Amino acid sequence: MKAKSTLDPLPPRLANKLFEWWCKNASVEDLHGDVEELFHCDLKIMSPNRAKIKYWKHVASVMFSYALKKRKQKSASHPYSYPSIHPVMLKNHFKIAWRTISKNKVYSAINVLGLALGICACLTIYLITDHEFSFDTFHPDKERIYRIVGESGKGEDKWMFNCVPAPAPGAIREEITGFEVVTGFHRFEPRVSIPDGDKPPKKFERSDGAAIVAEPDYFSLFSYEWLSGSPLSLKDPFKVVLSERKARTYFGSLPWDQIIGKEVVYDDSLRVTVSGIVKDWNRNTDFPFTDFISFASIQHSYLKNDIRLDDWYSSRHSSQGFVKVKAGTSPLALSKPLTALFRKYQREGGPSTPVVKLQPLSEIHFYPNDEQFSSTLPTLYTLMGLALFILIIAAINFINLSTAQSIRRSKEIGIRKVLGSLRLSLVVQFLVETFVLTSVAVVIASLLVRPVLWWFDSFIPRGLSLDPFDPITLSFLLVITISTSLLAGLYPAKVLSAYLPALTLKGTGTKMGSDNWLVRKGLIVFQFAISLFFIIGALVMGNQIRFIKTKDRGFTTESVVTFRTNWSDKSKNPSILADRIRLLNGVEGVALEVAPPMGFAQITNNIVYKGIHLIETSVNLKAAGPDFIPLYRIPLLAGRNIAQSDSLKEFVINETYSKQLGFLKPEEALGQFLYFNNKPYPIVGVVGDFHERSFHDPIGPSVIGTFTEFLHDIAIKLSPNTTQEGLKPLLTQVEKLYKQIYPDEAFQSHFIEDEIGWMHEGEQKTANVMNAAMVVTIFISCMGVFGLAMYTAETRTREIGIRKVLGATVVNITTMLSKEFAILIGIAIVIASPVAWYFMNDWLMKFAYRVDLTAWVFVLSGLAALSMGLLTVSFQTIKAAVANPVDSLRAE
Amino acid sequence: MKGYIGEFEELVLLTIASLGDQAYGVAIKEDIELRTSRRISIGALHSTITRLEEKALIKSWLGDPTQERGGRRKRFFEITHTGKVSLHHVKEMRDELWKRSKVALSLAK
Fold first, then answer.
1. A contact set with B (CB within 8 A)
2. Nearest Cα to A320, choosing from A386, A379, A368, A284?
3. Cβ(A200)–Cβ(A187) below 8 Å
4. For A624-643, how does the pLDDT look when each residue is reduced to its tens digit (9 = 90+)?
């Protein structure tokens, strides 16, 4: 007999591997055992090789048997367990979730608060963006409606204007095909009076641009529901169509047919009769007009002074041109004939002839002023990005805290697994837990939205509120809840469910924790990097805004109040009023002007200097009386102030213009002649440069002269001894004088400082958002480190106890625990600084006058983040450090 | 008839019964092969066993690990009451058919 080899042949390993792979989780221990036993039996009666081949056969026969098929089906659900999404199981998940949450109150509170803050930010931003994007989305054919806009200049000096010369729409309609509707309308702000038989007429103040002069075509452009009358009635002069609400304001509850034919008087001179009534749109719109006066009235009324149907050269913002293109026509192709048409009527090929373009209706809301780039759109996109970031760092908090907690729960997980819980059902359990926390957070966030909206009232559009039962808002809330649950819950669920029960139950599961430690560190770094970005951003923006407010503008604004008089008043009334105000007590000086030295309103025109070369420049015209320069304390560099005059006689120019004209010294400019409208005017003085526009734009050439027709604005310089209390009665006196001349006009005065503030409102808003974001992110990040520090202190209780027993001091231990966090925040500083530098530099570059981006901003931000982080951590570390080691060591 | 069982199923059931508390996969296979001198694959046997278990004619439990099976446990089978009832049904039907036979089934000449 052959000697039996010490090693019995084993079944082929490949077959075993294949078998195990094929069976996956199915319990096949007995089957596998049977197959192997057969192999050993076979070995007794045949050669090992044949037995191996037979083994393959056995394995194959089991693999494809009905028995295995059934076992595999069963493996998905243990006979004694429900599938993880079975209602009973879900109920249990919720119960366990609730128990875990109430057991770890501090962790849960941090989690919920952080998430609620994040979600609240998201929700607020969602409401804002939703509101902003909802304008004029309800018009039929809205994708075919365009506004006629012009684009002038090139490159850096490019600017847009979103208005047309008054005659343009008519000419386009006549000469260019491809449009279904071409129409122009003109906004104006009239005073309204309603004659009422013998009784004194009902009067209404100027409302906000709600009246337009419109052609019947306007109603083919936008569709209205007609309650009475028809668009055709606007063909005749002296007709007006009112909106339902306006008709009710004017005539109370009269039936429609009695309102038709009633008389309405605009600005005391334009008498029109009501010819139709339309229903108001009750959706968000940028065209909230309520009085539609017939276009034909222009020629026969005072309106012809303002709406000059023969003037192709000036375009006012109140004059708008709109078109509806024919279906299938590209707006791009229409730009060329439009531009050609404008060229034909305007000066031949002059530099100011614009490129005419069509602006889609959907964009109009975002370009309220003449802007090349919308100021609101980037803000909105920034806001959306911000919402996402805040949500992400809140989710990171969650991930951090849950994984930190995981070691505490490793025993629970071990036992669950031993008792037959599948990984999937553990994942579902943790997701349910996250879902419960998120839902609580969403509820808190929804409750927080109202106070937040109220708090940020100043830069949140009006009429915004959270309607929790709006289906779109509801679905947004649902999406937020689910996506946040998944975002925050998947990673912890994955980590927790991966624990090996044998390790965790033995108590050696801490190794798993140290793996996650790295991920958690990374997340803390990420959080702090974002917070730092916002801290740096807020600091830089704050600096720039302080710079704008405090920089020498070249003129003084201190205690200067301005107000407007009637723009269309061509008489000498403004100067009479100015003279009267001058006599008031507490008034140091009064100046007539077109506008304050710095402001939105700019009048530019071409002025020619015929020196060695002919220099034609687009110059800012500052219409002003002789009091203008002394009142604003604009320094005279050479020559003298303009003299009192009833018409334009001479110019004072600014230093920039003087340099542009080629004068080396301001004195050289004196006595030279500038040609304005082909008439020569002498330069009598040169003043120092002063800012005319916002700090985005560099100071350009400007002239100061008595352009009498523009002098409608009055600036009052208060004497230095006028107190806050004295201001009010003084303004009342001014108003009284004003009412003597303009009895029906509303009086509105502003401090010029405020007016300049409005120019940088956009930046101020962005800075406010930055500040808010900074507070929120710092808060969330600090909560994150707080939770983590709490966790570290807890897991290292014994270590700290032993260290203390061996002689470590409280300071030693606090330092030891804090060092870790300090390093993390340090890394965050290194990451965040260059990113913040890049973006803030970009932001600052938009200003022609700006602060420098100095290193101390970064140092300060870093120190701030570090100290806040350490302060938060210190609560826990000090608590851990002062704890009595007896207590911590006895716990074992 | 409810719970009708096939010929091979009957064979497996009776073998399980005959093996007593030693009825597990390999033992059943070898016993059947010895008795019927036909080769059956281990997969087919377990398929039938699975079906019998589904019909609740047998029940099973896991035994202790054994060395020659790579440390794996055996699954032992035992006939249930339902199993016994259906064996009786089959047997009664056979006996009845035997009795009713119009042809002499006796092999004696």
1. 11, 29-38, 40-41, 57-58, 60-68, 70-71
2. A368
3. no
4. 888 888 888 888 888 888 88
Cβ pair A37:B68 closer than 8 A = yes
Question: Alpha helices, DSSP H only, in A551-681?
Answer: 573-582, 628-631, 655-660, 666-669
CB-based contact A60 B46, cutoff 8 Å: no
Give residue-wise pLDDT tens across range A44-101: 888 888 999 999 999 999 888 888 888 877 765 444 445 556 777 788 888 888 888 8
Whole-angstrom distance between the N-terminal and C-terminal Cα of chain A?
Answer: 63
% pLDDT > 70, chain A: 91
What's the CA dihedral at A379, A381, A384, A385 to 10 degrees? -100
Can you tell me the distance from the alpha carbon of A183 to that of A659, in angstroms, rounded to the nearest whole number?
A: 45
- Residues A105 and A218: their CA atoms lie apart, in Å, by 63
Q: Distance from first CA to last CA of chain B, Å, rounded?
A: 36
Closest CA relative to residue A292, chosen from A196, A201, A183: A183
Q: Supply the ipTM of this predicted assembly.
A: 0.89
The answer to whether the CB atoms of A36 and B70 lie below 8 A apart is yes
Express each pLDDT in A220-268 by its tens digit: 888 888 888 888 888 888 888 988 888 888 888 888 888 888 888 888 8
Report the greatest alpha carbon distance in chain A. Answer: 140
Which of helix, strand or coil describes residue A141? coil
Q: Which amino acid would we find at residue B66?
A: T
Distances (CA, A) of A654 to A592, A621, A638, A692, A873: 19, 11, 10, 11, 58
CA distance A196 to A34: 108
- HEC profile for A145-164? EEEEEEEECCHHHCEEECCC
- Residue bearing tokens 């300090």: A822
Residue A30 and residue B44: Cβ atoms within 8 Å? no
Query: How many residues belong to chain B?
Result: 109
The closest alpha carbon to A336, from A492, A172, A504, A460, belongs to: A172
Give the distance from residue B88's alpha carbon to the nearest chain A alpha carbon, in angstroms: 26
Q: Is A360 helix (H, G, I), strand (E, B) or coil?
A: strand
**pLDDT one-digit tens code per residue, B47-89:** 999 999 888 899 988 888 877 787 888 899 999 999 999 999 8
Chain B hits for A9, Cβ within 8 Å: none
Yes or no: say if A115 and A484 are a contact pair by the CB < 8 Å rule. Answer: yes
Quick check: B51 contacting A, CB < 8 Å?
yes
pTM of the model: 0.64
Interchain proximity A38–B51, CB inside 8 Å: no
Instruction: State whether the Cα torsion A299-A301-A305-A307 is positive or negative.
Output: negative
Coil vs helix vs strand at A271: strand
B interface test, pick of A62, A69, A72, A74 with most B CB neighbours within 10 Å: A62
DSSP code for A595: S
User: 3-state SS string over A835-891?
Assistant: HHHHHHHHHHHCCCCCCCCCHHHHHHHHHHHHHHHHHHHHHHHHHHHHCCHHHHHHC
Residue of A nearest to B65 (CA): A33
Q: What sign does the dihedral A410-A414-A415-A417 (CA atoms) show? A: positive
What is the distance between the alpha carbons of residues A540 and A844, in angstroms, rounded to a whole number?
9
CB burial of residue A772 (10 Å; 0-12, 13-18, 19+): buried
Maximum Cα–Cα distance across chain B: 57
Contact A65 B47 (CB under 8 A): yes
Quote the CA–CA distance of A78 and A781 in Å, as a whole number: 43
B17, with CB counted inside 10 A (0-12, 13-18, 19+), is middle
The pLDDT tens digits of the residues spanning A540-564 come to 888 888 888 888 888 887 888 888 8
- The C-alpha of B72 sits at a distance from chain A's nearest C-alpha, in angstroms, of 5
